[in-house]
Amino acid sequence: MSMPELSLFTSQLITEQGDNMKKGTKLTPYLLAGGFCILTFSTNVHTSLAANNKLGEKEFKEHCAACHADGGNLVKADKTLSRKDRESHGVKTAKDIVRLMRKPGEGMTTFDKKTISDKEAKAIADYIITTFK
């Protein structure tokens, strides 16, 4: 490659790189905004989950701990809140736990919507699932 050809080639390379950098520079605000949104969303989700867990713990202690201290069961020892025992009795989701709170079997107190709201019942169920493994 002769010197003029090399000079032309180098000039084209620099121009292409400059154009690419300009395109990247134009995208930078969008990338930064997207990253900020993801960070904000994940922080809000974490904060919301923590608040729900605190509500669940509070409501569990108020309404459930008398019979289910430490995830046990004072009335029916084989029906603890451990995942293994819950699942062996068909209780696999938070929805299943709420259903049992509303229409329990023999030996368990019924918790209607006046006593425990749907939001509180869901928080208790989530607390049970995350706490008693």
In short:
The protein has 133 residues and is mainly α. It is built from four helices and no strands.
Write the layout of secondary structure elements.
Layout: H1 3-63, H2 83-88, H3 94-102, H4 118-131
Helix pairs in contact: 1-4, 3-4
Secondary-structure element order, as H and E? HHHH
By CATH, the topology is: Cytochrome Bc1 Complex, Chain D, domain 2
Number of domains: 1
What is the CATH-assigned architecture?
Answer: Orthogonal Bundle
Give the percentage of residues in beta strands.
under 5%
Number of helices: 4
What is the rounded Rg?
29 Å
Residue-averaged pLDDT, rounded?
80
- Choose one word for the global shape: elongated
Q: CATH superfamily, called what?
A: Cytochrome c-like domain
Q: How is the main sheet built?
A: none
- Helix/strand class: mainly alpha
**In angstroms, what separates the terminal alpha carbons?**
71 Å
Helix content: 55-70%
**Annotation, overall tally of beta strands:** 0
* Multimeric organization: single chain
* Unreliable sequence segments: none
- Under CATH at level 1, the class stands as Mainly Alpha
Explain this structure to me?
This protein has helices spanning 3-63, 83-88, 94-102, 118-131. The N and C termini lie far apart (71 Å). It is elongated. α1 (3-63) packs across α4 (118-131). The protein has 4 helices and no strands. The mean pLDDT is 80. Helix content is 68%, strand content 0%. The protein is mostly helical. It has one domain (3-131): Cytochrome Bc1 Complex, Chain D, domain 2.
